[in-house]
Amino acid sequence: MKTILITGASSGFGKLLTEHLSAKAQYRVIATMRNTQTSNNEVKNELGKLLNVEVLELDVTSEQEVNTVIQQVLQKYQFIDILINNAGVFGGGLLEAHSITQVQKLFDVNVYAPLRLMKAVLPSMRKQQNGLIINLSSMLGFFSIPLNSVYCASKFALEALVTGSYGELIQKGVENILVEPGSFPTELYQKAGVKADLSEVTNSYDGMAEQMTEYANNAVYSAVQKHNPNALSVVNKIIGLLEMEKGTRPMRNPIDEISGEQFAQKVADDMAVLAQTQMKAYGF
Predict the structure, then answer these.
(1) Residue-wise pLDDT tens digits, 2-20
(2) d(CA 243, CA 28)
């Protein structure tokens, strides 16, 4: 039985993934989340009743908690076969209207948290010459759009961490890969998130931010209504990756039911070709 640790399992992709993996006898799921005694107590009890699921308290922004939980799981089960870095927060607003503190908060969850988890599990994975890390990124890790520059930057950073370290870790038997969803109707967009907090700066743009936000929201809503993307597609994508043979998993795995699977994959393929061409030009 393989041990899978999932972060951010209280809602969205993390919760759906936990529910679907519990039906598979070959996996033991460690579902982690914050606030298990307060706001997430109900979902903790719900998931805790599932077969082969154990729910643990984990604030991914705390290095001490991350290291404690990882060591606790390793002591109990000897090995973490698969880490799924799913926890994340959304953001929005004008770049200038974000305080540096607010930017740091978003990066703490979307960039530093997955890095903390990677660093915590990698020593045991390298020792075993085996392991899989799946990082939930976004199609917005490929390009940046107005009012989302800070969020996009956090996903750009995650993409860089994973793609750059892939060649380091694969030689040690560890696969570090990305899943890059487009827009799917999950709780990520409904939560408060980490948004622009300098209202005086936003107001000085004379309503432009509000107009652009309304336009973008209407556009995304229309696209979602038209294409009806199903979050289970992402869950099935991840489960498919789990079941692939070691060494055959693609590093990048985009999935977007609005722009289309072929378009999303072409973007990823083009990025790979550009990177290979640039590295070859420099003699790598």
Answers:
(1) 999 999 999 999 999 999 9
(2) 14
What is the spatial distance between Cα 238 and Cα 113, in angstroms, rounded to a whole number? 20
Q: Inter-axis angle of helices 63-77 and 113-128, to 10 degrees? A: 30
Report whether 89 contacts 191 (CB < 8 A): yes
Q: Which element (helix H / strand E) includes 205?
A: none
- At 241, list the tokens: 């990756």
Residues 6+ apart with CB under 8 A from 30: 3, 4, 5, 6, 54, 56, 73, 80
Range 97-118 average pLDDT: 98
Q: Which two tokens stand for residue 279?
A: 């590295």
Cα 138 to chain centroid, rounded: 7
C-alpha distances out from residue 77 to 23, 64, 71, 167, 232, Å: 20, 20, 10, 28, 29
147: exposed, middle or buried (Cβ count in 10 Å: 0-12, 13-18, 19+) = buried
HSE-up of residue 19 (Cα within 13 Å, Cβ side):
13
0.70 exceeded by pTM: yes
2: Cβ contacts below 8 Å, ≥ 6 apart:
26, 27, 28, 81, 82
Q: What one-letter code names the amino acid at 151?
A: Y
Q: Which sequence spans correspond to the domains of the chain?
A: 2-281
* Owner of token pair 């793609």: 163
**Domain 2-281: which CATH number of 3.90.79.10, 3.40.50.2300, 3.40.50.720, 3.40.250.10:** 3.40.50.720
Structure tokens at 73: 């799981």
Query: Which residues are known catalytic residues?
Result: 10, 137, 151, 155
Candidates 97, 70, 49; CA nearest to 3 is: 70
